[in-house]
Amino acid sequence: MPGRSLRLDSVTVEGASSAGSGNARPGATSGPAPLALYETSVRHSRSGPIRHDVYARSYWWLVDVDQLQVDGRGVAGLPGFPAWTTRLASIRPADLDIGSVPSFGAALRRKVAELAARENSQWDRTLDVEGPALLACTGRVAGAGFDPLSVVWLHSASGEPVAVLAVVRNTYGGLHHYLLRPDARGRAEVPKSFMVSPFHDGEGRYVLDVPPPGDELYVGIRLEREGEPDFLASVSGTKQAATPKTLIGLALRRPIEPVAVSAKIRAHGVYLWARGLRVHPVPESDTSAGREAPGVPPAPRGPVTAMFALGTRWILAAVAGGMSVRIEYPDGRVLGAGRHSPNAPRMIIHRPSEFHSRVGRYASIGLGESYMAGEWTSPDMPALLAEFADRQATLVPRPLRMLRGLYIPRPPQATGGDKANARRNISSHYDLSNAFFALFLDETMTYSSALFPAVPRRRGRLGEDGGPTSHEVGTPTFAELAPAQEAKIDALLDAAGVRAGTRLLEIGTGWGELCLRAARRGAQVVSVTLSEAQRELAQRRADDAGLGENVAVQLCDYRDVEGEFDAVISVEMIEAVGLEYLGEYFAAIDRVLAPGGKAALQAILMDDERVRTTRNNYTWMHKYIFPGGRIPSIEAIEGALNQTRLRLGARTHFGIHYAETLRLWEDRFTARAGEVRALGFDDTFVRMWRFYLQYCEAGFRSGYLDVAQLVVERDR
């Protein structure tokens, strides 16, 4: 029975979907080849301009990839060996960059299909690789691995050798596949298209010797330039008995073997550099950093980063075990208590090394930047991040939390809430362009939480002081957003007692919808903002509506407002003030509010313990979205009010409404992403805003964040 075919572009590879079960593959003429172990010698020899040789002792495995069974961690132990030997020797599909599995063999053949399609002119229309695929590599020891070269001998269903896949890795985290067609001697030539050593430029050709392995194993790579050999790397070895006893003996004689080989290669490079050998820049495409998105800093590197990255792996694996999520790695490994549930929120990690390095080194900044760089994605982002928000207190062990100040950066002084910085902070977000915000906001151009008549309870708080006041209904639609925004504004106007003749001050204009609705009640409105774009559009809307005589929009800091007002309203502006400036904010309201007047605020809130714990943190949100922003707690607000004649009155919490508002914004933003790009914003910006909107939705949906309307009254 012939194996099924996988068609990619114009090349078809037979057997690309065959499963690795340890039995003979469909269509194959013989069973799997036995496991073989080779004790090897590794040699790197440079002939000029500085001659230098490196020798190392090692051991290689030869295994039929269809015998490799990959577990949930993405690790394949040696076939026929006890499970405990995985700590001494294991193989991972991720180390070959062949994509996700369930079947190691199927994943490898898919990669071969892609390579053959990419190099269509060099291959027949149909490449039969249905037969044995024999992998030679060092594997991993104690989880550590650095394999400069791995080789796969590919055979047809009839057992004939048809191709060789050479997987070359450099010390910069880069990896390249060469798909070869050796001659009868096992020799193949290929143009150099990947930089392994910084002491060689991109010129030259590789001559590879990859004869089929038997009792002896030999793999050689010779770099030739202008017809002369320049560099030779080779691995040669003699077959040993592939038994646990032999493995233990080798592990004792050559412990941490992959690390030792890597160290010798790096020491070789240091020696050549010290001798003055010219160093050529390595193209970004040949490093892990070459995969970064424009506008995102490269993934951090170095020994400290490696330590944090390793810690992140452990913490993520430990915490995920108690979370109803699926954390999926490219090698097929799946973490999380929800790994067996098709409906569990999914985190798909595409580039684990960069992901763990960023998150380990830069915490929440790294998580967001990793998403911006495309290193991980999720089709269920709000649900996924809500799970993480629920476990935020235990994501980092207590001993490491005590070291928070050592690895979480402090806010730059330039993002503080003083007058010199406040306008720049506001402008960096709100002056992106009015056309941009119009793409995902409703026709009221309101950029704050709506107040729906009723929304699904889910998680979060509703009603006065967190008590439920609405019944469960269907999910709101975008058509319901504008009426819900108008209802929110009317609730604030009512709470502040705004009516005909009211002198109203609005701190934080937005795009003017509250000005319009207050003016239609007959109020005289002064609205202040630090955004030139918002000021221009808000005043124009008032003038176009015939309400210009009732509305004055000013470019003014709240601390500089003069006059006396019967009411003050401020919608989600307090978060931009900064915790250390809450006293100034309420002092300004106290100064301008007439005796007996009321202020109505809509504020995003956090629990006081979280506010105090994170008050000096510099996060992804600060770096990319709201520089200078700080979310207060009710306790922080009451503490600031105690320094004034103002007192906190009624308050209404409706955090789940904000989750629904953000969901509607993100849905519309994603649907109109093409129009966002047409305004001049790139793909990294689009990913950044999607992460921001969904990150915030998760915060409100989990209850980590809340939003409330607060009434503040002044003593007579």
TrEMBL record:
Gene3D superfamilies documented for this protein: Vaccinia Virus protein VP39
Residue ranges, annotated region (Disordered): 1-32
InterPro entries, per database record: CFA/CMAS, DUF1365, SAM-dependent_MTases_sf
Pfam families associated with the record: CMAS, DUF1365
Coiled-coil residue spans: none
Domain of life assignment: Bacteria
Name under which the protein is recorded: Cyclopropane-fatty-acyl-phospholipid synthase
Organism this protein belongs to: Dietzia timorensis
